[in-house]
TrEMBL record:
Belongs to the Gfo/Idh/MocA family. PANTHER family: OXIDOREDUCTASES (PTHR22604), TRANS-1,2-DIHYDROBENZENE-1,2-DIOL DEHYDROGENASE (PTHR22604:SF105). The lineage of its organism: Bacteria, Bacillati, Bacillota, Bacilli, Bacillales. This is Gfo/Idh/MocA family oxidoreductase. Pfam families: GFO_IDH_MocA, GFO_IDH_MocA_C3. Keywords: Oxidoreductase.
């Protein structure tokens, strides 16, 4: 039986990426969409051929036919509605960052255990097969021992001052919005947790004092570091480089999937440069299938809720470092 998904909000990420992804998945179908404005829900439902539209989130959660919900609400609403969904017996795929801080994430994880439903954080890029290919290259020893990772995720949306990203009390800012990608990627590649964070940021008075640009370093074991920058008022970049003792891996498009040659990555060694071609896939569909197969078969999630808690601990440290202009040690990683 296909997993029936309910979508909680008509946010652009839902309309343009996640709903089409679920529709292309092997395991799921989009059954319902909810908005606080019924006309908005109906409009999107008609546009994307979603059978049911609701004018409130509560109505969606009360629909017994729905197995799982996707939550792309503003960050400050993630905890409230994820817990309500889990208490209604729904599995949850929650947009990143999963919460405003690690404490909220821990409450959400506890609710998942209590209600015995799945809670997953929506980092779609992790499901793209190129990361499995990169892991195999690293394990083969072809680039030697990893010495450093550098990543950048920036874009310029500063003119849209009414955007939810520019509400400080709603969890706005570049670290919340795009900084979480380099952070989660380094943790995934290095299979470990950083010990400390140092971040310098530009806080904009024009944008409710959120961080519009941040540059940082995360200290991992064995002297390895992630250096990264993220921004919402800068030229667009979406890159990562993994530097080893014998070579390096370069990803021109590390997180956004274009389904063209930009998805390919490059292996640089003493033998020259090799372009590694990757399959053209919908990483949102693969994300939906990872959750869907876990629901259907009891298969363990590749990245369970405790991973989201650990990622939030790092993000907490980055935000504290940026605000207080100091190095912050990360406890309990």
């Amino acid at each position: 039986m296909a997993i029936k998904w309910g979508v909680m909000s008509t946010a652009n990420i839902a309309k343009k990426a996640v709903i089409p992804g679920i529709k292309q998945s092997e395991t799921g179908e989009v059954y319902a969409i909810a908005s606080r404005n019924l006309e908005n829900a109906k409009e999107v439902a008609n546009e994307l051929e979603v059978p049911v539209a609701y004018g409130s989130y509560e109505e969606l959660l009360n629909d017994a036919r729905i197995d799982a919900v996707y939550i792309p609400l503003p960050n400050h609403l993630h905890k409230e509605w994820a817990i309500k969904a889990m208490e209604a017996g729904k599995h949850v795929l929650c947009e990143k960052p999963i919460a405003l801080d690690a404490k909220e994430a821990q409450e959400m994880e506890a609710a998942s255990h209590r209600t015995e439903v799945i809670l997953a954080e929506a980092f779609m890029y992790r499901y793209h097969p190129r990361y499995q290919m990169i892991e195999e290259i690293i394990q083969s020893g072809e680039i030697g021992d990893i010495r450093s990772i550098h990543s950048a995720f920036t874009f310029n949306n500063a003119a849209a001052k009414e955007n939810v990203r520019y509400r400080k009390d709603w969890g706005g800012g570049s670290l919340y919005d795009v900084g979480v990608y380099p952070i989660s990627a380094a943790r995934m590649i290095l299979k470990g947790e950083p010990e400390a964070a140092t971040v310098h940021a530009f806080f904009s008075k024009e944008h409710d004092h959120v961080d519009m640009m941040a540059s940082g370093i995360l200290e991992f074991d064995n002297g390895i570091a992630l250096t990264f920058d993220c921004g919402m008022w800068a030229a667009s970049r979406n890159r990562m480089e993994i530097i080893g003792t014998e070579g390096r891996i370069e990803l021109p498009s590390a997180f956004v999937s274009h389904q063209d040659e930009q998805d390919h990555f490059y292996l640089h060694t003493n033998n020259g440069t090799k372009e590694v071609e990757v399959p053209h896939v919908n990483q949102y569909a693969l994300q939906a299938d990872a959750v869907g197969k876990s629901i259907q078969n009891g298969k363990a999630l590749p990245y369970p809720a405790d991973d989201a808690v650990l990622n939030m601990k790092v993000l907490d440290a980055c935000l504290t470092s940026a605000e207080e202009r100091r190095r912050v040690e990360i406890q309990g990683g």
